[in-house]
Amino acid sequence: MRSSTSLTLLLASLATAREVPSNLKSFYDAHKSSDCPNAISIPYSSGQANADTVYCKDNASSAIYLKDTSGGYADVDIDCDGAGMGTGDCGDDQSGQSQTAFKDLVQEYSNNAIDDLNTHIHTFVVLGNDNSPDEGDGGAPFDPTADAGIEPLSVVAVVCGEKLVYGVWGDVNGGKVTGETSISLAKMCFPDEDISGNSGHSEHDVLYLAFPGEGAVPKDSAVWGAASAEEFEASLAEVGDRLVQEIGEGGAPSFTSRVVRRRV
């Protein structure tokens, strides 16, 4: 039996490359080219057009996802907010903020092991749009908790680059832009692309799937004080796997792992 220390080192050295389970693949394929059957927000922006992305609700599971109004899902823009602001490959980001939306909750769940999420370590997704007059147009906002029952720091399943990666809902956009993630999640999705604070993934082929209820929040089971993105992401799998089985026909994910050279 491996000790907890050796297991942590193993997780830190491997990037989990999960195959997309059949039920989730069927969901992805079925909805990619169709219109959103149940839009629960106004159209927001992918950063490539003024209003091309809605929050869509899957009535069967009550999960929500970002859906392009012209077909496809969402792109990947980089959120460099939080503890890693202005460092590493986020050094060229001019819009980073020193904290994320749920900093206080991060401290609570981690027993103050960390002060805030770190974009280089924590695989997180940005959901919700305050649409403030300063950052947006002052129009209708979208609050994932009030409007769809999504809890802060809950697990989000991300289908990207023909793999499944887990993150948490970790930040909110003050304006109208959608499709932002931490740089660590973006690099797991697209390790061969030139990802930085100023360069994401422009194709609208990424499915972000968020689940309602407190059961989607990993709390103590997540390794908030992880030393690497791989370790943090792997710690979300227990909750994530259970949630993903609720989509469509159900089915257990299959897993492979591969060594990934991290960009510095």
TrEMBL record:
Signal peptide span: 1-17
Keyword set includes Iron: no
UniProt main location, coarse: secreted
GO BP terms in the entry: polysaccharide catabolic process
Entry's localization field: Secreted
E.C. no: 3.2.1.132
Reaction(s) this enzyme catalyzes, per UniProt: Endohydrolysis of beta-(1->4)-linkages between D-glucosamine residues in a partly acetylated chitosan
Hydrolase as UniProt keyword: yes
Superkingdom of this protein's organism: Eukaryota
InterPro entries: Chitosanase_fungal
Gene Ontology molecular function: chitosanase activity
Keywords: Carbohydrate metabolism, Glycosidase, Hydrolase, Polysaccharide degradation, Secreted, Signal
GO CC field: extracellular region
Listed PANTHER family: ENDO-CHITOSANASE
Job description of the protein: Chitosanase catalyzing the endo-type cleavage of chitosan, the deacylated form of chitin. Chitosanase may be crucial in the degradation of the deacetylated portion of chitin in the fungal cell wall.
Similarity field: Belongs to the glycosyl hydrolase 75 family.
Protein name stated in the entry: Endo-chitosanase
Organism of origin: Trematosphaeria pertusa
